[in-house]
Amino acid sequence: MSAAIGIDIGGTKVAGGVVDENGEIRFRARRDTPHRSKRPQVVEDTIVDVVEELREQAPDAVAVGIGAAGFVDADRATVVFAPHLSWRHEPLRDALSERIDLPIVVDNDANAAAWAEWRFGAAQGESHVMMVNLGTGIGGAIVMDGTVIRGRYGIAGEFGHMQVVPEGQRCECGNRGCWEQYASGNALVREARAMILANSPVATDLAARVDGRAEDLTGPIVTEAARDGDPTATELLAEIGHWLGIGIANLAAAFDPGTFVIGGGVSAAGELLLGPARETFRRRLTGRGYRPEARIVAARLGNEAGLIGAADLARAAA
Ligand SMILES: [Zn+2]
């Protein structure tokens, strides 16, 4: 059994694990990165630390895979742009290769997560997979015929910035009406907070959960309220699901996958989100009634998917 090391670089932490050929994590290690120190050097040192700790546990590890939230170039060496790490054209693989004597690949975290769900999770056995991650924004990835489709420059899968509403909500990317303004965790929280701030009588349950402080409301609180049967929270999630279905219908028109895997924090809402998404998807799908419909399923590997996928991609490359 050849093990590989997977590393997940987040905004405030570096998480790593030794992953075996079945996608099981055998050992874990984790370091927080100082909040203001997002300089490449600090994060690099932290990655080297974590890798060294894991290699003591698993001297047989054959490769290191790194999943980073950001644009990673198509040769999987350079982080072109990472908004949460203030990295710009960071030659991460070469920098790490000077300090770690194993083959290293760097990939986008959504690519890594989709790969893991295809190999070991919700999309096993499916030849055409698309993953949509609903977090603060929307990330995504495409795995077709056992290959991650990265695009010419490595930036494919940024579905969150497809325009779905002409002149709609302003997006931080500079455009208006982007999909992630309607179907992400941020969208859910924005809408729920707006109802509390408007003193809406239907938002009393949600307001009570945060003592009336709209700014304290989070996505998980909305999901919990919906699970407890609050109709407003249920409706807010259904609305996110509706917008999810619209975007997925667009993706199906372009890519025709067999399975959509929905991951990210909001996917914890399960059927409260996916039920409405499937309903809208069926109503919006081009050629509906005359074509097979893609499955829409929840991701199975949770927030360790990126780490597992990064390790497995590195093992495959080595
Ligand atoms: Zn945008």
TrEMBL record:
Annotated EC: 2.7.1.2
UniProt keyword list: ATP-binding, Kinase, Nucleotide-binding, Transferase
Any one GO MF annotation of this record: glucokinase activity
Family annotation (Gene3D superfamilies): 3.30.420.40
One GO CC annotation: cytoplasm
Top-level taxon in the UniProt lineage: Bacteria
GO biological process: glycolytic process
Family: Belongs to the ROK (NagC/XylR) family.
Protein's name according to its UniProt entry: Glucokinase
Lineage start: Bacteria, Bacillati, Actinomycetota, Actinomycetes, Micrococcales
